[in-house]
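Please, structure for the following, as tokens.
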Amino acid sequence: MDHNNEIKITMNGTFYGLGVGPGDPELLTVKAVNILRAVDVIAVPESKKEMGSTAMEIAQPYLKPDVEILTLTFPMIRDVEAKNAIRRDNALKIAGLLKAGRNVAFLTLGDPMLYSTYLYLLEHLSAAGIEPVSVPGIYSFSAISNLLNLPLVKGDESLALICEFNVEKMNSLQAFQTVVCMKVSAYSEQLFAYLEEHTEWDFVMVTNAGKESQAISDNSADLKNKVHYFSTAILTRK
């Protein structure tokens, strides 16, 4: 390992938020790989079973054989107070490990600062006097646009990013050249109905970008079928 890139293990543990990208283990940054090889504990979030297993699958080639795995559950429930209590409890578990001098890396798909479970821990960790080290990861839509050689924007064009759907919001995006639709499985049928009426958009959707199970569709009718959770759609103006 390059000594300039080694992670220094200190007496007080360090907490890392690691973006592991969309699916291909080769898309991790050198910094993320060096951290994975050095930490004592890997914290894996689970709100859906496949989320935690996917993050671990990406990181697995770089883990120490004796690294401890800490699974933290973030259930998808509507009760705001209950959700906040669970997030606080998870933050306290991490804080306990850090105070014991252990270094912890929290895995997050994509990037830590974009629709990430990691974000729910930050306020609680800050309150405990912990300053995390956040390491960027590649967004799914960045991987997809490069996979397809599909420019997102150029010149003075604009890009919008959505993770929920309503007609008013879509109609407000008429000035944008490109719209990235994350978490599209939650509103796929609504998006299909919209695209049937608004034919000015080209459509592409990629599922499991960077994995062996990767699938690409340029037919918006596929939105009527059950859309996999790890799917991102990109709309570009014709």
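The chain has a mean pLDDT of 91. DSSP finds seven helices and ten strands in the chain.
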